[in-house]
Specification:
The complex is a heterodimer of chains A (187) and B (517).
Chain A: H1 5-13, H2 20-39, H3 42-59, H4 70-89, H5 118-126, H6 129-140, H7 145-152, H8 156-186
Helix pairs in contact in A: 2-3, 2-4, 3-4, 4-7, 5-8, 6-8, 7-8
Chain B: H1 3-16, H2 24-36, H3 45-62, H4 73-79, H5 83-92, H6 95-98, H7 103-106, E1 118-121, H8 134-150, H9 156-161, E2 190-195, H10 204-207, E3 213-219, H11 230-233, E4 250-254, E5 261-266, E6 271-276, H12 282-285, H13 303-316, E7 328-329, H14 332-339, E8 351-357, E9 359-360, E10 363-366, E11 374-380, E12 385-393, E13 396-403, H15 408-417, E14 425-426, E15 444-445, E16 448-453, E17 457-467, E18 470-482, E19 496-500, H16 503-516
Parallel strand pairs in B: 1-13, 2-16, 10-17
Antiparallel strand pairs in B: 3-13, 3-18, 4-5, 5-6, 6-12, 7-8, 8-11, 9-10, 11-12, 14-15, 17-18, 18-19
Helix pairs in contact in B: 8-16
The chains are: A mainly alpha (187), B alpha+beta (517).
Chain lengths: 187, 517
Amino acid sequence: MEIDESGIIEQCRLGKLESFSGLYDRYAEKIYRFVYYRVSHRETAEDLTSRIFLDALKSVSGFDPEKGSFASWLYRIARNRIIDYHRTKKDEVELDQARRLDDKSDPAGDFDLRKMKEEVRIGLEKLNKNQREVVMMRVWDELSYREISEITGKSEGNCKMIFSRAVRALKEEIPVYWLILLLISAK
Amino acid sequence: MNEEKIKEIFDDLYQIDPELKKFEKELFELVENMISSRPDIKMDKEFESRLRKKLFEEAKKLKDKGGRIAAGFWKKVLFGLDKKFVYSFIFFGILAIFSSALVALIYPGRDADDEGIKISRLKDGAFGVLNSASGENFLAGNSLGERAAGLGGGGQTIAMDSSAASPKAMSLSDSVESGSAVMPPYGDYEYEYVYQGEEFKLDDASIGARDGKMEVLRRIKGFSSSFDPSVLIGDNLVDLNSFSHTSLQNLSFAENKNDGLAVNINFVDGSLSIYENWIYWQDAAVDSSRINSGISVSNFPADEKIIAVADDFLKTRGINRAYYESGTVDDAWRAYYEKAEDKASVYVPEVISVLYPLNIGGREIYDQSGERDGLRVSVNIGKMKVSGVWTLYNQEYQSSFYPIEQDFEKVLTKASAISGYPILFRGAEGIEDGSDDFFSDKRLFLRKIKVELGTPKLEYGKFWNYSNGQSEELLVPVLIFPIANPDQLENFYRKNVIVPLVQDLLTGNGRYYEIMK
């Protein structure tokens, strides 16, 4: 049985905020991962996830379903929180960026691109900021173009275009990947 | 992400840039690599539970104090049921009557009758004397019960104390009701409780008491709605109009499908249970292979898998988890298995219980055997499906302050009194004096076992007070003493010793204990 999301939201909008737990159950894990992929640190991800849901709880009564889905609205809050986090830290690592190998901005980070497959890391670093953001949302967060569009404020068509250009750019790098793979496997 | 989703990505892509189709194989591998590079991270269960609770509390704060929270149990439940069922309900005109009934039980936020765990504060001592029955039963149960059990006694006393020498592992076929009607292992032990913890103060400031009194909670049973059953049957079978002052006490319905479930709502008790519709769980109920189901220690699923099944069920059925902590699997059978000499004879449970411990205002709730109390979900291991939900109660309470014992030494005395009465078992073997008279007192013998108690913590314990022909469910402040030397104890499975602080209960116990001495 699917959770009656629109019903819960309607109840929340009517001030019956305890219903929010149904939304939490549905999105907690997804939002936590979304955050973790971008801050690479468990405690930070937990802290930000808490803030995101508290923000959402406080403002859910103002949520307008005609302006987009609840999921997009929630991810947008998450995205803004992550941007704030990086700004506060004056961290050069942006929301969309996968951390560079030489990045020491978050020594507490317990995950970084060193753990990624080499070809993916190199590929993502070749992409520009917009491309990386859309690729990560589409592939890692499994968001639809419509959701990505609502979260980032770009048109759906534009998001598709960005993704296709990103893939084309990555494709150009494929020969490099094979070379790297060859080198790695030869070790 | 599965292959289908990757394909979906590419279908979108080809609409924008059809030329990329020529490189499908390479691109497919590329995206697969990206996906496999995604960090495999999962949210910490404790964190998830903490945040849920925090959100629930925040929601309560945000809400207008004078308002009432909608609960929508019926909407929640009925939306998920077969439409014909819903329509039949509507036909009977019950829907409207019940919609306000099970407010906080399942899902808070639909009706207008609850603020999560609602507590109505009454004047001090409002529940009368608390030890009208339970007080005597408490420690009496903990001492006498063991003796009675050993001698083949029965009754409620045994059920209440049975986990002391414990039997929980032997009640595996009934993993739902821990500590109920189970047989303790045959033995000849006297457990001597010795406090080994740190200094512990019970003054007002240390434990948050008020003038030597603490808050006792009494769960409000039943629901406010009333219902005239005559609308259901009319006078076809019996003229129900001939019954007066009627109220609906129980409602049951069942899913008639494979692995279907049945639901029973007890309006008097304010509780709801979900269990198998046995007709459709034939392999579990009828199949003789149940005795040897193929489930063994080696293929028993990991706790996290069992919890995931239970979590998913609660989520999809819209059962509110705001009052409960993260689920834990009742692994008593494993403890029994580890200690068993003949491991092949240990029954590996086919149904296992996942406990979601209840937490009220930051206090943990314990039953009288010292185990956490809360929502229990049964998972059928063979099917990896939920086969039951138990102890789902309406969480609404009244509270009243009661005098407590603030002398820790006296509390310790009570703690040591639990099971302190010599437990005499007739030995099946090992006759000390060679007597072959089974009924000879010479065949009764004891072995003293020192049970060390660690520093206690202040929580709530669930007690029953039998008053005016009814049992009242109370949550009283208790000290929970952890057993500090479990590895040194033979046939002893109790994890904690629970001592109520409320004087009504201690006095009852003390009096009984003195008599026994």
